Amino acid sequence: MMTYLKLAWRNIWRNRRRTLITISAIIFAVLAAIVMQSMNRGSYEVMIDRMVSFNTGYLQVQDYRYDDETSLDNSFYYDEELRDRILNADERIEKIVPRVETFMLAANDVSTRGSVVFGIDPEKEKNFNQIENYLTHGRFFDADEHTAVMGKGLADRLQLSVGDTLALIGQGRFGMSASGLFEIAGLIEHPIRDLNNSAVYLPIKTAQELLSAENHITGLLINPYHERQTDAVAASIRNTLDDNELVVYTWPELMPELLELMEMDLAVPRLLTVVLYVVIGFGFLGTVLTMTMERLREFGVLLSVGMKRLNLSFVVFIETLFISVMGVVSGIVLSFGLLKWIDPINLSGEAAQAVIDMGFDPIIPMSFAPDQFYIQGFYVFLIAMAVFLFPLIKIVKLNILEAARS
User: Fold this and answer.
1) pLDDT > 60? residue 359
2) What is the span of the domain harbouring residue 360?
């Protein structure tokens, strides 16, 4: 085996320039593919994290009727016993946050606007999504207060500010009338633009009293320690709630339109990656083709002195593998270093303002998900296997006498 490895290593460096050009092409392909994927995935990871933190959680427990009819009538009873059952279902659960969510009219003394009212536990919510970091005026309420925090966009539309009184008018559980007056404790510049123009936050007990939904919630948001554990944790909770009217949804099930949008947007980078590897594959093929044609006489001599075709094919395979491995490993190392160097990219000028207007920070973070690195090695390995077919066919069909005389 060592003899074959040494022979293959010496063969690829017989034409040093050609080998280096081929390795450089593979490095460029791997580097470009990883950086392109990292930029796209980094942006989407931030988007997903923000959407699940403020909307759904990576997992959410609901009444089985709530998804079809988002009504307070389909809320469910939540107490410490249910909380402990869910927490004990899987040790990978990191955070669990109860919420009450409903639609109400938010009003001042002369006008009204539609709003989304959230009843939250302030301490758990702050730990879940750091919502207090988005406060622009005032403060966040405590759990036992009868005050509200609202999105700055909604406050501007109603011409309200900290210290003013907000009226909420709507319908509670089972058709009960729900209305109340709340002092505005603070305003937040919500990172999700739609919620900035519609969100009102109340302490969860205050919201439950307002809506005649004592001890009931509409959703229980759950985050695992790592996003990749979402499906496994969901399965564990489903087993725990098997005899209950509660169901568990993952964030793609709750926000399929976001997932579809991401898939559509990632189609172009994926297509560019395929084109890039096709081009590199033909370059790789050209190198191997030239090496093979130049060495037909060498192959004929080796076969004539007793070397088996299988062993000769194995040596050529190792040569191809050496080139691809050196290119992939170098590309991964360089791309990781480059991503560390540029992470994150800070936008400025009109580009930054456009991103801010969409409700995001003016930065492009890089993703360091392991799979985007090792998957490139798999792609190049497939290319190497396809390229290797040419010398393999040549060796199998090689006429020893004709090759030795060429």
Assistant:
1) no
2) 2-50+258-405
